[in-house]
Amino acid sequence: MQKEAPPLLRFIRFTHLLLHVISGLLQSIVYPYVPLHIQRYMMQHWAAGLLTILNIKLRCYGKLPSLEVPRVLLAANHVSWLDVCVLMAACPTRFVAKAEIGRWPILGILCRNTNTLFIERSKRSDTIRINQQIGDVLKASERVTVFPEGTTTNGKQLNHFHASLLQPAVTANALLYPVAICYRNVTGTICEEAAYIDSSLIVSLQNILRQASITVELTFTEPIQCGVRNRRELARLAEKAIADTLSLPIPHKQSEKLPDLPIG
Questions:
Q1: Rounded to whole angstroms, how far apart are CA atoms 250 and 140?
Q2: Per-residue pLDDT tens for 89-140?
Q3: Is 49:20 a contact under the CB 8 Å cutoff?
Q4: Domains of the chain, earliest start first
Q5: Residue 204: enclosing H or E segment and its boundaries?
Q6: Which of 208, 21, 168, 201 is nearest to 101 (CA)?
Q7: N- to C-terminal Cα distance for the chain?
Q8: Which helix (H) or strand (E) holds 19?
Q9: DSSP β-bridge partners for residue 254
Q10: DSSP-assigned letter for residue 4
Q11: Mutual angle of helices 7-30 and 201-210, in 10-degree steps
Q12: Is the dihedral angle over the CA atoms 60, 184, 110, 45 positive or is it negative?
């Protein structure tokens, strides 16, 4: 049976977390007005602190994109709200998130002040606007992270990777880095408690605080040059790279046509 953190330790962690969030809110006020290299430092330092408070150990594998690479788009599988903090701690980046998050208390303020790009998922026409914004960010030599599944899983499966938000990488001839995210508990098995599915943020946080510790494995697979491929090819290649890394089956979408799949 998996060992849980004692109640007193959970309370201490929660208290430290509240103070850390308040610190983040204060920092986020000045964040938009400082140079990019300072923004990256602030983001990475704050995210690493949050993982430490929650006793989440980060292990990175593969080659992370260097600062010398001008245009980088990261595409990751999506398990939890923690994914954002994990990626920020390893590789500071801007994110594309659903618009509802921007309206959340506290977390929404943090996201808005750190220049998160918000998309209205219920409006197909909003894809044009958000793709223009992603393209502008890439041209400014900033990194952007998207979650092509569009929703979270329990970490034991992959959902179909949608191609729509990968178009800016094609247009900007960026490098696409597929990133595999996997959470494990103290026994080494998949930590489903880290997943954020059909629950409130408070319930999710309680599940995480109960864990004695969590290890998150972040694997950066070989980058893909985007200019010579279309967005559907990129989606399938990223999907396969992450599925192979996590030893998960590749999802299939019945409505996708054969010509949309990459050759070979």
A1: 34
A2: 999 999 999 888 888 878 888 998 989 999 987 787 899 999 999 999 999 9
A3: yes
A4: 7-253 (3.40.1130)
A5: helix 201-210
A6: 201
A7: 44
A8: helix 7-30
A9: none
A10: B
A11: 130
A12: negative
